[in-house]
């Protein structure tokens, strides 16, 4: 009987505790929602001078994006009705001022305002607090320490390595050149750019194009990057997933952690192997006497004015950042350029003739050849205009910002730059959807705002690796055109979709034939 009374008392106490927890949880949720509603009303008032397309009271504009390949054009269409900039809502509480005109983007890109703490926050478990997402003094210090890694003398030896990686990919394409069927090239190019960055930035010959990845592009790191990119997009679009604990408990959160582990094990192995190799060498001069310096050498040996280097955590964040940024964005740029040339055979042939002349009988590009292919370079730029690898970016203001027309946005505002929107803006570009590389003749470029074409961003936070990327795009495009004739597959038009980089829902398909058959 005494035991029964004790159990009864414990049960009642437990019930009361659970009841109190439920009440406190409910109160917390109500207070949280009330705070968000107050904040929402503040943003509605703050952005009232920037009208935007009609929105749903709960979903905002999220349901307007169908993920069907037409979402990018929808933003351009909205821009026609709302010049310069307009507000967009993701769910009931997140608003972004979307900029799509050079005169507006000039103001935001000229600043050192940090990346936003919403979408970029979702990247931190993967790529850490590296150059892409860091801000303030940390970003400034890291940028200064990393800049020597992209010096002319460091980039020059990379061209041969890029050429070798491109040749490996093109050799694999021999089987496709004997078929009348099209093939998907983005995965091939991703493996090739991963191979390149491993050789160039980390002096590591992984043979990932022929071992582990092979013909199907199933390299574990590439798969992890694809999955992480998709999951970051899912998390941004799903409002409850903005909560850390809800996302972590979800199936998507589990997949994200699993893919992060794959990516991190890849970079940790690279760092571990290099540290072992460098344990007796701490000075760049002594390392350079033995071989060409690479990005990782400079990262590990970097010192500031106080002779302080980067922490192990910072080194991994920068390696993770450059590993992703240096292969995936470039893969997007190359893939869409090859597709653009497949759709425009007349420009393709002009490029091919130029490349054959520059190479003088050779099959692979060298450093000196990069400046000998101006028309091919203009075609690459035109493809970057139509299909920017990074279609948008976002900053969070630390102070109020006033634009050239006098309109002001307050501190804390999220300002998104639609690179795709700027590049397709009909008030900036004549016939913006047409492929016309002559837009980039020096005399034509001089007539435009320098902020009309920003595939690598602009200003103090521009892409630190843009010369690396442009060099690789020139090498790969030139060697591809020297060897193959590209034609589009009209039955498999790509459906553009913005992930962290610009991809296609159904892949990017082309047909190829050896040049000597034409």
TrEMBL record:
Keywords: Endoplasmic reticulum, Heme, Iron, Membrane, Metal-binding, Monooxygenase, Oxidoreductase. GO terms for molecular function: aromatase activity; heme binding; iron ion binding. Pfam families: p450 (PF00067). SUPFAM superfamilies: Cytochrome P450. One of its GO terms (cellular component) is endoplasmic reticulum membrane. Its EC number is 1.14.14.14. It catalyses: testosterone + 3 reduced [NADPH--hemoprotein reductase] + 3 O2 = 17beta-estradiol + formate + 3 oxidized [NADPH--hemoprotein reductase] + 4 H2O + 4 H(+); androst-4-ene-3,17-dione + 3 reduced [NADPH--hemoprotein reductase] + 3 O2 = estrone + formate + 3 oxidized [NADPH--hemoprotein reductase] + 4 H2O + 4 H(+). It is found in: Endoplasmic reticulum membrane. The keyword Membrane applies. Catalyzes the formation of aromatic C18 estrogens from C19 androgens. Belongs to the cytochrome P450 family. This is aromatase. It comes from Salmo trutta. The gene is LOC115176602.
